[in-house]
Amino acid sequence: MTTNQTDFLDTEPVGRIFMKYLIPSLIGMMIMALNIVIDGVMVGNRLGEVALAGVGIASPVYTIFVAMSLWIGMGGATLFSQAIGARDVKRAQFTFTHSIVLIALFTIVIGLTAFIFQEQLTYVLGANEETFPFANDYLKVMLFFGFILTIENALSTFIRNDQNPNLAMIALVVTAILNIVINYYILYVLHLGVAAVALGTIIAAAIGVLVLCTHFLRKGNQLRFVRIRFNKSIFKSTMSIGFPSFLSELGISVFTIAYNISLARIAGTAGVAAFSVLNYVHSVMLMIFLGMGSAVQPLISYYYGARKQVRIRKTMRIALIVASISGISAFVIGQLGARQIVGIFGDFDEEVVNIAITGIRLFFIAYLFMGINFIMMSYFQSIAQIKMATWITASREIIFMMIFILILPLLFGIQGVWLSIPLAEFIVLVTIFLYVRRNRDFMTNFTRSN
Q1: Which residues cross the membrane (predicted)?
Q2: What interhelical angle do 367-382 and 309-344 show, nearest 10?
Q3: DSSP designation for 216
Q4: Rounded distance, CA 22 to CA 19, Å?
């Protein structure tokens, strides 16, 4: 590592360092979120609410690919930063190469295997006779070319951990803008369907990979492809540390499938279309919180490897304040602007509009707690407290959510569906609070100086 990089992380004020990571992460994630929303707006306005619902049904496959890249990518990047913090550059470079090879192999094999069963998979995801053609067309492309998305996402994570968050941001911006331009041309000039939209997303991601590769020309770059052989110890550590990130993304797929099935049962295609609108907006908030986690993880991992507890404590305090303010702001916007948010996505039937407005107002309660939960998961993951990080992700997005979505609709109807995530997030926050109070080692790290 160069002296300037070491001085930057070790000597500059923590608040300034955090902002240098946070701002590029948030800009990149917000642009990607805007890209997701604009995609939804264009599909909804050009192809209609059934096509929009079909894309929403197939979207968990995209999420699973991202989850695979985060599982190995975040685990490997955390080990990379810890090794750099400990001044072990050779181990860092071995870990980087090992991780990228694993990601490519895993996602290609999984994608091609799932492609063989893509029709059955489409129905399992919640498609009906109306939505099947759109969902299946989108699914085929994502399964066949999804490995490009995983390479882009993992490479971006490593580059951010190699003290180049600005390039990670630029690549996200380029990918998002190209995706919007390509899909506008596909939908409004060529008048093609959702399969072409999915292909446009893949093309934009491939160009994003090329942008990220310019990092290897950068002076002071610590990422190097080196000769490797399979290393069981690094593999186990990578998969263990990265598992909460995988589970977090997998939880999004579980959430999407569970909500689609529940709302289809209660309100039919109108309920699924309303959820598609909410899910696009929810993607914006997820990107914001993911951006915060992306700023926290490289710093905490590095400081943990360098044994700098004071900087860990200061970084976490700033991150929790930012997450709290963001969550409160999102909640207020949801309460005051629900109808306007729904109107952005198209001129839907009044039934769809009413369901979506109610959904936004109830669901947005979750953002009061979600940001803090995200930051705490990133913290525990970065210091290798995997059990707690796994508990946070599994309980908020799978365990409690599934319990509530099975029980609450029986008591409160469709409102019970919308409230399942807010209640899950709140309970998880309570468990984190209790853990922090009872765990002396955690409190020592969080409050004492070196």
Answers
A1: 21-38, 50-73, 94-118, 138-155, 167-186, 192-217, 238-261, 281-304, 316-335, 355-376, 388-411, 417-436
A2: 140
A3: G
A4: 5
Q: How many CA atoms lie within 13 A of 10 on its CB side?
A: 14
In a domain? residue 61: yes
C-alpha 137/C-alpha 152 separation (Å) is 23
Helix (H) or strand (E) holding 315: helix 309-344
Place of tokens 């550590």: 237
Q: Do the beta carbons of residue 158 and residue 99 sit within 8 Å? A: yes
Tokens 């959510």 label which residue? Answer: 401
| Contact present, 157 and 15 (Cβ < 8 Å) | no
Distance CA 212, CA 161 (A): 13
> Is residue 68 a part of any domain in this protein?
yes
Q: Please, is 340 exposed, middle or buried when counting C-beta atoms within 10 Å of its C-beta (0-12, 13-18, 19+)?
A: exposed
Q: Whats the size of the chain, residue-wise? A: 450
Alpha helices in 86-215 (DSSP H): 89-116, 118-124, 132-145, 147-161, 165-184, 194-212
Does pTM top 0.90 for this prediction? no
Residue 395 · residue 428 · CB < 8 Å: yes
- 252 alpha carbon, distance to own chain's centre: 8
182 Cβ contact partners less than 8 Å away, ≥ 6 residues apart? 200, 203, 204
**Could you report the per-residue pLDDT of 140-191, keeping only the tens digit for each?**
888 888 888 888 888 988 898 888 888 988 998 898 889 889 988 988 888 8
Flag whether 8 is in a domain.
no
User: Which residue type sits at 411?
Assistant: L
Q: Does residue 437 belong to any structural domain of this protein?
A: yes
CB 170 within 8 A of CB 155: no
SS3 88: coil
Closest-CA residue to 151 (of 201, 91, 87, 108)? 108
Place of tokens 């200061």: 314
pLDDT, tens digit, 9 for 90 and up, residues 347-387: 778 888 888 899 999 999 999 999 999 999 989 988 878 88
Per-residue tokens: 382: 């970065």
Cα distances (Å, whole numbers) of residue 46 to 43, 60, 180, 257: 5, 22, 14, 24
- Count of domains forming the chain: 1
Q: What is the pLDDT of residue 1?
A: 41
Instruction: Encode 361-393: b = buried (16+ Cβ within 10 Å), e = exposed.
Output: bbbbbbbbbbbbbbbbbbbbbbbebbebbbbbb
Question: Comparing C-alpha atoms, which of 146, 180, 166, 145 is closest to residue 211?
Answer: 166
Structural domain of residue 333, as residue ranges?
13-447
* Paired tokens of 181: 């331009």
130 is written with which tokens? 């109306």
Q: Which of 395, 110, 113, 127 is nearest to 255 (CA)?
A: 395
Task: Give the distance from CA 335 to its chain's centroid.
Answer: 24
